[in-house]
Amino acid sequence: MKRHATSIILLIIATLAAWSQQTSGPVTLGSWSGKIKAGLTPLTLVLHLEHDGDSLKATLDSPDQGARGIPANIDHLSDDSVAISIKSINATYSACRRDDKLRGVFRQHGFPIPLVLTRGVPEVRRPQNPLPPFPYETEEVTFTNDTDSATLAGTITYPVGYDRTALSKVAPKGGRAPKTSPKKPTIVMLITGSGQQNRNEELMGHSPFLVIADYLARHGIATLRYDDRATGASRGGNVSNATTEDFMRDAEAGLRFLRQHKDFGKIGCLGHSEGATIAFMLGARKQTDFIVSMAGPAVKGDTLLVRQTNRILQLMGQEGNMTVDAYRRQPAVQGNAWVRWFIDYDPAADIRRTRCPVFALNGESDCQVVADQNIPALRQLLKGTKKSLVREYPSLNHLFQHATTGLPNEYSQIEETIAPEVLADIAEWINSL
User: Fold this and answer.
1) Is there a smaller number of Cβ atoms within 10 Å at the N or the C end of the chain?
2) Contact present, 170 and 181 (Cβ < 8 Å)
3) Which residues have C-beta within 8 Å of that of residue 379, sequence separation ≥ 6?
4) Band of the pLDDT at 75, cuts 50, 70, 90?
């Protein structure tokens, strides 16, 4: 009887040990991060090893490239070693754990690079992100682009000190408005750059439109920012085959909504990158009272993208000898409806037809919309436009951050979301109109 009881106890201990191992898993489970030296700027990689129900899973983040949750296969995982493969990027990582660090080699396309990972996820500091309580009112709104069956959700941010309820005190038609009637504020609709983004234009860990909306509200200017179609709280609208013209109709619906709102005076557009292209398309159609163009292209799409490609290659220490013809022949270009439209589009005609005031900004270190190509074209095209201003900012990149190289993989590593002088200049220019 004692031997039988001892066997049962041993079985229970073995079962508990196996259960504990299954539940807790190897000590290598958790998040690990480090920097890989590739090119001029190190890239941050974050490896997540975690439970997924009864099994284990691995994912990889490359926050400096805006990539998160890349699936990985676990080829081996124990207390002292790990091996994973990431088929989507043709890469592997194998490492041994020593001093509670994963010390190993990351290989992509067979090329080996040493990579040491430490426990935890790197802290991301964004000191310009506004934190509540806010000294201004906001309103959640929706508007509809009926042509594309898209309902866009957004946020109106009112200026500090503005009393929306005072508008209801205005005298009826034919009567005299009381002296306390408020002045209708200027409002700016914010239009995001290429790719599906939320109303804050969230990318690379930054929220530029949130920062802009907060700053403008504190300087007497209202804003409308909205989630791109089929993104965030917005619903409907084709995305897979959509072009800039389709997204322009979403912005057009936003302007129509603001004019029907009747709470605002001047109604303008602030567009970043592709968003500025959309703003100029609306300007040419006389649908906006003014435009702020942040890195808005002023040359034909294929010319711009080739210059962008060559600038990035040169900054990475490679030859930049891409030609327009070679660029257009790439399978990735031919297979993408948005790119096919963009490379054929020349914004010059729309910019030239825009007669409303324009403030066009470009960063000197921008390697996506290269300033020394773009600024001269803007100056020429806006020559006859009243109250317009074209300004180039030293050392600023495509996001208007103070940068070292201007390469996109720097964006997330820079704490600054947008240069303070840019915010100040935008507010001063709008308030001068």
Assistant:
1) N
2) yes
3) 390
4) very high
